[in-house]
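USER: If only I could read C-alpha cells as easily as an amino acid sequence. It would mean a lot if you studied the pair and described how this chain folds. Here is the record:
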Amino acid sequence: MGFFLEAFEPAFMQRALFGSLIAVVAASLVGTWVVLRGLAFLGDALAHGVIPGIALAVLLGVSPIIGAFVAAMVMSGLVSVVSTRTVIRDDTAIGLLFVGMLSIGIMIVSRSQSFSTELTALLFGDVLGVTVSDIRTQLIATAIVAVMTFVLYRPFLALTFNRSKAQTLGMRPGLTHVAMLALLALSIVASFQAIGTLLVFGLLVGPPATASLLVRRVPAIMATAIAFGALAVVIGLALSFHYGTAGGATIAGLCVAQFFVALIGREVASSFRSDTPFRPEGEREVPRPTVQVQ
C-alpha cells in the first residue's frame, strides 16, 4: 500500500488520478459500442482527426477542447457523407479522412515556430498537468456521455446488433449512428487532456475489449470496462511516479496488456474445463450480449 500512498500524496498526482478516472468512465461507456460495432478504426481515426482542430485552437487562443470537438464532428460528418453518397466503403472513407485531417494538422503546426511543447502535450498527454478547470470540463462532458448513453441505450443496442430491426421499430438508425459518433467525439474530448490524442484510443478500445472476453451483457461490459480502466489508471500513474515513465503511455500500455492477460487466462481456463482437445463450437467466437429489443 505504501507504493500507492506515496505516489498519490502530491496534489498534482491526485488531480491526475481524478482526471484519468473521469476519462475512463467516458471512454468505457462509448468504447463498449465502438468495440461491439467494430468501429475501432473509426475511433482511432477520430482520435487522430482532432489534431488540426486542437492546433488551430491553440494558435487562435481558443480552448483546445472546442477545437477538438469541432474537428471530431467535422470528420464524423464527412465520413457519413462519403460513405452514403458514394460507392466507397466506410473503411476507405475513414482512411482517406484520417490521413487528410492528420496532414492538415501537421501543416498547421509547421507554420508555427513555438508549437512543439504544446503539441507534445496534446499528442501524448500531460496527465500530471491536469488542472481543476480541466477536471470540471471533463465532469461535464462525461455527465453528458453517461446521460445520453442511458437515454439512447435501446436505439444503440438495436443499431449494434440488428440495424434492420431498428429501422422496422422506427428507431432511425441513421440519426442513432450520428448520435453515437457525437458521443464518441465527446469522449475523446473528455480524455485527450489526460492521456493525449494519440493514446486516448487505448482507453476507448482496451478496457471494453477486455471486458467483452469475460462478460456477455452490454451493461456488464460497460461496468467491467470501467473497473479495468480504473485499475490501469491507478497502477499506471503509480508506476509513472516511481519510475519516471510517461503517465498517459503507461496507462494505455496497461490497458492493452490487460486484454492479453485476460485472453490467455480465458484460454487456459477453457482448456482446463474441456475434456477434449477441441473447444466447443460456441467458444470459437467472442461471446456477445443477447439482443432483446422490446
Summary: The chain has one domain: 2-270. Confidence is low (pLDDT under 50) at residues 280-286. The chain is about 80% helix and 0% strand.
